[in-house]
Amino acid sequence: MRVLVVGSGAREHAIVLAMAQDPEVTALACAPGNAGTAAVAEQRGLDVLDPVAAAELAVEWKADLVVVGPEGPLVAGVADAVRGAGIACFGPSAEAARIEGSKSFAKDVMAAAAVPTATSEIVDNPAHLDAALSRFAPPYVVKDDGLAAGKGVVVSSDLDAARAHARTLLDDGHPVLLESYLDGPEVSLFCLVDGETVVPLLPAQDFKRVGDDDCGPNTGGMGAYAPLPWASPALADELVETVVAPVAAEMVRRGTPFQGLLYAGLALTSAGPSVIEFNCRFGDPETQVVLALLRTPLARLLHSAATGALVAHPPLEWSDGAAVTVVVAAEGYPGLPRLGDVISGSEADGVLHAGTRRRDDGAVVSTSGRVVSVLGTGADLALARDDAYRRLEGVHLAGSHHRTDIALRASRGEVTIPQGAEVVTRSGDVG
Ligand code: AMP
Ligand code: GLY
Questions:
Q1: Pairing between strand 370-378 and 322-329?
Q2: Shortest-distance Cα residue to atom 10 of ligand 1
Q3: Which of 151, 188, 403 to mutate to test the pocket of ligand 2 (most atoms within 8 A of CB)?
Q4: Residue of the nearest CA to atom 3 in ligand 2?
């Protein structure tokens, strides 16, 4: 099978590496890729937001399967164009990608499917902002209604900060979504979806804030781990039943079936699981840890989902043990990052490239805020963490920063799910 992966981040590097290990894959390309994917896959230039160009490349390269990594191309219609050219594509149509591209659309689908989520209100007129904010209690949650790479959200108990963020968005012409605050640990659940067929991958946890102890602004994700030792082994199946399958069925009912990866971001609150967001693609950095543990060959699995054959695919197989990834970010990220710096040590095993390019002189340089995602594995979370941080010591980038506490609390059994008035700690039962 000839597989073309669209995108250029560490998620795409992880997908390309998993494809490279699949004996069924005879040729592999990544467009536009990065310095890491170039070591394993043919590199092709592409404006990923141009559906016609993507479909032309898929035809010219004779792809049997196209896997679209990021949300931008999906929302722009790349999957429609590739399928229109008669090539199997793992990724939803532009219509179905609205589940991520518009938070108000996602809220509408969830309401119709009776899926629990935060209560919310859309504000598109600055004159209505204060009245709307007064209907919420702190901590305030203020979101950009459109795509914002995880950075359009402010969660703050400071009313002035919440108002200021909302004003900035409105001044830029973006409708604002206000939400009730969801307590409890977050879970990223990736599901392969093919119409009404839903196959969950291992639940993972992402670290959204830039600094240790969840301080500072939100980012695209600074690290992740899987599995979740504090969660019940039945969690994924429960979430499929109560959240993902009803949403998949609602998308079918609307005539816009979802085909690809439906990512449910949830909070496990005292009142039960509640959806924070849906994404229409693999998450980054969670994909790095989830695929590190997946033993089932990836190409046939994604091809099945892309061609209506997921229901007949054998059950997934997973490695025992755990995986942890730590993102190394450029100075300034998640604000304006400093780019063009040389990274050393990036060719080592376990270093997944997020924003890198090889210069003509052979040096690998940074090209975006998240630069590499260092992956560690081990028999348990503590060992996987040690492995990731040991590998990270070999990577050098001037001015870079990373979190030092990825998976730390989980490895110590300190993650808790609030349950009514009391807090219950679950530990030890790695699912
Ligand atoms: P989103 O862009 O919707 O994924 O939000 C980014 C991050 O902001 C989430 O991963 C959460 O950490 C936080 N967040 C978003 N919505 C809420 C909410 N309603 N309650 C608490 N935290 C939230
Ligand atoms: N890790 C969060 C995301 O991919 O949206």
A1: antiparallel
A2: 208
A3: 188
A4: 283
Average pLDDT on 292-315 reads 98
153 CB within 6 A, ligand 1: yes
Q: Report the sign of the C-alpha dihedral through residues 60, 63, 65, 70, in that order.
A: negative
Give residue 140 CA to ligand 1 midpoint distance, Å.
11
Residue 227 CA, ligand 2 centroid: distance in Å: 17
What integer pLDDT is reported at residue 420 of this predicted model?
60
Whether residue 260 has pLDDT greater than 90 = yes
pTM reported for the whole predicted model: 0.92
pLDDT value of position 246? 98
Q: Note the ligand closest to the C-alpha atom of 279.
A: 2
Residue 416: predicted pLDDT = 87
What is the pLDDT at residue 149? 60
Q: Are 404 and 378 in contact (CB under 8 A)?
A: no
Mutation probe of ligand 1 site: the residue of 218, 222, 278 with most atoms within 8 A of C-beta: 218
**Which amino acid, one-letter code, is at 63?**
A
Put the strands of the sheet holding 322-329 in their side by side order.
205-206, 223-226, 322-329, 370-378, 351-353
Kindly state if the Cβ of 334 falls inside 6 Å of ligand 2.
no
What domains can be seen in the chain, in order of their start residue?
2-93 (3.40.50.20), 120-179 (3.30.1490.20)
Q: Which of 210, 186, 205, 268 is nearest to 407 (CA)?
A: 205
Name the one residue in this structure whose structure tokens are 């492995």.
387
For residue 96, how many other CB atoms are within 10 A of its CB?
26
Cβ-based burial of 315 (10 A; exposed 0-12, middle 13-18, buried ≥19): exposed
- Tell whether ligand 2 has an atom less than 6 A from the beta carbon of residue 287: no
Q: pLDDT tens, 194-210?
A: 999 999 999 999 999 99
Ligand 2 pocket check: which of 279, 288, 289, 373 to mutate, most ligand atoms within 8 Å of Cβ?
A: 279
213, 236 Cβ separation under 8 angstroms: no
